[in-house]
Specification:
The structure is a single chain. The chain has 25 helices and 17 strands. The radius of gyration is 26 Å and the shape is globular. Helix 20 (about 450-465) packs parallel to helix 21. The N and C termini lie far apart (about 60 Å). Helix 19 (about 430-435) links the parallel strand 13 (about 410-420) and strand 14 (about 440). By secondary structure, it is an alpha/beta fold. Strands 11-12-13-14-15-16-17 form a 7-stranded parallel beta sheet. A 5-stranded mixed beta sheet has the order 2-4-7-6-5, sandwiched between helices. A 3-stranded antiparallel beta sheet has the order 8-9-10. Bound molecules: 2'-deoxyguanosine-5'-triphosphate (DGT) and calcium ion (2 copies). One calcium ion (CA) binds near residues 189, 200, 202 and 245.
């Protein structure tokens, strides 16, 4: 039996889309089943085509006869008429509407039925005209919140999360590199700089036969539309709406082209100015001496930077924030390596919102090469009904001790994530917290407090002797929730003074602290921890995004507590 070479990622995307569409139709239960199957396909080690050929689709957890048949059809034909018909049935705008913070599929359907709203623009107009407040479950305040959510959405519109794009980019690079005439194939642009969101994906290749590579590129399974196609540059749009640019350049220009198309634009402008001071020209073809037309450098990035009197600057730093000066003076920071983290410092178990029991999440972490993991389920309060009580904490701790006795070369640190209340106090007493290995505290309510009050809350939590880590310090969710207003400088000084770690939440839509806040906090001598907040094995994989953020924030391994071996980490936590 033949398959179409469709990737697991793409199959999962299709299943997720079906779930969203069914939900918007107010179909019950099925969306959950489709999401479960989508996740299982994402977590699958084997290629979905292989599993299909073996007739083993129904051995995938969550895949029964019905969904199995859909996957089979998609994998063998490359099409799914069921999805096409769902798409036709439901206006595109309605799905988008459901994605607005505070709406969701049920309310989207209600808005459509009662007010005829079918897209975000319609929602905005209705909110401004005060029509939304007439509906059950909505008020004047929710209208204001909706308008705010719409603004946030518009600002991030057309941009994609780095964590969603990198796997897609790696897959395309892999496919292009398999072409017989492809030589170098690599990611450039903001994705290479590991910026938190990506406008479009830039790829670069060298090949003695560019047409063949371009033909392959424009016919990749993920491509929905070709915007332009030529021998040196092509642009396509994927089903997700992501635009991808591929440029094929000459081997001798590869370094200059990679430098140019990696950007950032501001970094390039500063670099070009530096070149012109020497009467040289820097562009995507090379570095040329204008006096005699001699090519000074071009085949490697290192050569280009060296010719300009600079050390090679890691892509994550190329934002014209002082990296060129540092490269000149030889003071570029030694950035934390992508393999330097020895354990995830914030993970959920099935005791709260996680899907895996303690042993399973520990084994998943061990398999990633970690030597420890901090399980920090939420502590229960009004905002977190599924959280742990003081009693739960004690029972869970016993369970962790038992697991640690049987696990080789791996430890679970017993932890908790407390809520910081309005007065800066925590939702569990220190008598409970002081028995644990690590205590994380974060803001979970009252995000809109004024700056002074919020700063006071955060600083109070930092000064609490029981607190080791300030979780997701600003609470932002990319495209969904603004950061809280707080004086990050004051927060950093307090963290440095007390030895409280500031967290980099590595979850792909949070990345909180941001790169720039990391740098600001480091300058104030604060130290950091990185945690994913993972609820399953898949989400553990977001760690590299937290490391990327740390690198973009000029952090080294010594700045990050969970690069330490367990013993030293425990000493640092000092509990
Ligand atoms: P994005 O796509 O918005 O996430 O950000 P980038 O950085 O990937 O930007 P993009 O795709 O427009 O261009 C890729 C790179 O090409 C960019 O980082 C630097 C270079 N570039 C683009 N336009 C210019 C320009 O006008 N001047 C210079 N010096 N470089 C540019
Ligand atoms: Ca780009
Ligand atoms: Ca581009």
């Amino acid at each position: 039996m033949g398959t179409t070479g469709i990737t697991n990622q793409r199959v999962a995307e299709v299943l997720y889309e079906i779930a969203d569409l069914l939900e918007t139709k107010s179909v019950r239960f099925k969306p959950i089943a489709y999401r479960k199957a989508a996740k299982a396909v994402m977590d699958l080690r084997e290629d979905i085509g292989t599993v299909t050929n073996r007739g083993d689709l129904e051995t995938i957890p969550g895949v029964g006869e019905h969904i199995g048949a859909k996957i089979h059809e998609l994998v063998t034909t490359g099409n799914l008429p069921y999805l096409e018909s769902l798409r036709k049935e439901i206006p595109e705008g309605l799905v988008e509407l459901a994605g607005i913070e505070g709406i969701g599929p049920k309310r989207a359907t209600l808005l459509n039925r009662e007010l005829g709203i079918s897209d975000i623009q319609g929602l905005e107009e209705a909110a401004k005209a005060g029509k939304i407040r007439t509906l059950p479950g909505f008020g004047e305040r929710s209208e204001q919140k909706l308008l705010h959510a719409i603004r946030l959405r518009q600002e991030s519109k057309g941009r994609f999360l780095l964590g969603d794009i990198l796997p897609v980019a790696d897959e395309i690079v892999r496919q292009l590199a398999s072409h017989p005439s492809a030589r170098q194939v690599t990611i450039a642009g903001s994705a290479r700089r590991r910026k938190e969101t990506i406008g479009d994906l830039d790829l670069l290749a060298t090949s003695p036969e560019p047409e063949g590579v371009m033909d392959l590129f424009s016919t990749l399974p993920a491509v929905r539309r070709i915007v332009g196609k030529g021998p040196t540059r092509s642009t396509v749009v994927l089903a997700s709406g992501l635009q991808v640019d591929l440029r094929v350049v000459a081997e001798a220009s590869f370094g200059a082209a990679l430098q140019y198309f990696t950007g950032s634009k501001d970094h390039n402008i500063a670099l070009r100015r530096r070149a012109s001071e020497k009467n040289w020209r820097l562009n995507e073809y090379g570095l040329t001496d204008l006096a005699d037309g001699r090519v000074v450098a071009g085949s490697s990035e290192e050569e280009v930077y060296r010719a300009l009197g600079l050390l090679l600057i890691p892509p994550e730093l190329r934002e014209n924030r002082g990296e060129i000066e540092a490269a000149e003076e030889g003071t570029l920071p030694a950035l934390v390596g992508y393999d330097a983290v020895k354990g995830d410092l914030r993970v959920r178990s099935s005791w709260s919102s996680g899907s895996l029991p303690l042993t399973k999440i520990a084994l998943a972490a061990k398999e990633m090469g970690y030597s420890y993991l901090a399980v920090c389920d939420h502590a229960k309060d009004a905002g977190i009904p599924r959280g742990l009580t003081a009693e739960d904490v004690a029972t869970q701790q016993k369970e962790i001790e038992g697991i640690n006795r049987v696990l080789d070369d791996f430890s679970i640190l017993s932890g908790i994530e407390c809520s910081i209340m309005h007065d800066g106090k925590l939702n569990l007493p220190s008598s409970v917290l002081d028995d644990l290995d690590i205590v994380i505290a974060g803001i979970h309510t009252g995000f809109s407090a004024p700056e002074k009050e919020m700063t006071r809350r955060l600083v109070a939590a930092i000064h609490n002797d029981s607190v080791d880590v300030l979780a997701h310090p600003t609470g932002r969710i990319i495209g969904k929730r603004d950061p809280v207003q707080a004086d990050i400088s004051a927060v950093s000084y307090a963290a440095a003074a007390t030895g409280t770690l500031l967290e980099i939440d590595a979850c792909r839509n949070r990345l909180d602290l941001t790169d720039e806040n990391c740098r600001l906090a480091k300058e104030r001598h604060a130290r950091f921890s990185i945690g994913t907040g993972a609820r399953d094995a898949g989400e553990l994989q977001d760690m590299h995004l937290g490391i990327a953020t740390a690198r973009r924030g000029w952090l080294g391994a010594a700045d990050i507590a969970n690069t330490l071996p367990e013993k030293d980490l425990r000493t640092l936590l000092g509990r």
